[in-house]
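stuck on this:

***
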Amino acid sequence: MTAILETRGLRKAFGGNVVLEDVTLAFAPNRLSAIIGPNGAGKTTCFNLLTGFLEPDRGEIRFQGRDITALPPNRRARLGICRSFQVLNLFNDYSVLENIRVAVPALRRRGFDCWTRAGDVREAEDRAAGIIRLVGLAGREHVAARFLSYGQRRLLEIGVALAGEPQLLLMDEPTSGLGSRPMETLRELVQRLAAGLTIVVIEHDMDFVLTLCHDVTVLHRGTVIAQGTPDAIRDNREVREAYLGTLKYTKARG
């Protein structure tokens, strides 16, 4: 299967600190993949390279066969690469509807002002309403983001990313800080999305990774030490010694 996103030999250093070295990845379309590893393994730096927030010192990034290594984040977003962040990135004074509406391409292309076509506004409204239902925030359309619970804010940020009409969604620690109920809501949402969307997550919750993901890549000290199915990763001795042995995790269900 042809990869939708792939990297070849990525390297990134900050001064004398080499964070990533010779990282080669490939993510198949319409699958849920995870990048895991201990703190300091280079996971977020890898995401920043994939989304254009950092430039690699060496190596190549390709999306749908096109070299995007030098493209900035906004150009990558227009190609269909969208991202949610570990630290929530929302307009706190905007309502749920407004946060999502401003990310819809029909409005983002021109901005929301008196010259915006009525058709673009209606398109954005309809698109935003559908996303709000999808992420489980129906009934909270006019609530300012600052008044949402932490779990609802997580769902809203995913909704904002979906408003960009991604072909590839990268999610940085989506379960971080969630209680059991919002965690289950998020699990169900990610499962539904993965049926028709390529998703890559950075995640520490091993139950989430090993029960939901199709493919797992393990980073350790800036290099890829294993890639494969959840079962293969769970049974990999090097992975267990480097990472899994220090965490509580469960056997994949069904």
Residues 109-116, 247-254 have pLDDT under 50 and may be disordered. Strands lie at 5-14, 17-27, 32-36, 58-63, 66-67, 81-84, 168-172, 198-202, 215-220, 223-228.
